[in-house]
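Annotated sample (chain length 258).
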Amino acid sequence: MSRNAELPIAVVDSGVGGISVLRELLRIMPNENYIYYGDSKNAPYGQKSKSEVLEITKNNLKYLKGLGIKALVIACNTATSAAAQALREENPELPIIGIEPAIKPAAKLGENPCVLVMATPLTLQEEKFRLLAERFADREEIIPLPCPGLVELIEADDKDGTETYLEKLFAPYADRKVDAVVLGCTHYPHVRRAIARYIPEGAVILDGGEGTARHTYNRLSELGLLRRSHETGKIRIINTSTNPRLPFFCKQLLYKKG
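Output written by the structure step:
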């Protein structure tokens, strides 16, 4: 492949959520160059129609290709469900990696584990999620947990509002045995500690960030597109609107250890 390995990997999301995926990419490939594209102007994606999200994501990719990129990571479950396949068909020359809820790892937790899947309404309505859930239906009990409005609370860094939301969300499961809670939106890892306070005792929290980062590494390795330099790469942050919280999330989450 003739694509320049020095070109950046583009990571796109509807706002600050995809920073949780970028953090995992940096852990695995710290020497790569990155463009983080936070589309706050069009956030949230999860309450838009599939056609709207598809058109938005196509336009975002067109812009990013104009900057010069070697791969696209769709760090948004909603956009992955609505647009990833169409983008791959229209851009066969570009590696496009999406993200999906960590239902597969949850199946390894024991015999028929009970799994709550937190996600935006659109993600849970899409065929991609339905097929994934059906694939593991004989190995685990999967309970979709739509979370309309949670992304907005996280984007606004509304801690009190988020705590109240999560308390109500998990109240019906307080006395039920739950083995795992899957974070099916890249915004949710930003409030992992708050989620941990309200989920049923003994449940583990899973998200797809690390798996997406490892898949990206494998794809670039297969295509000979890994950057050979041992120097730490550069990160360029682009936001489509004035989100005053974006620099805060970058500092707190990109460089937080552990």
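Annotation: The longest helix spans residues 50-67.
Annotation: The chain has a mean pLDDT of 90.
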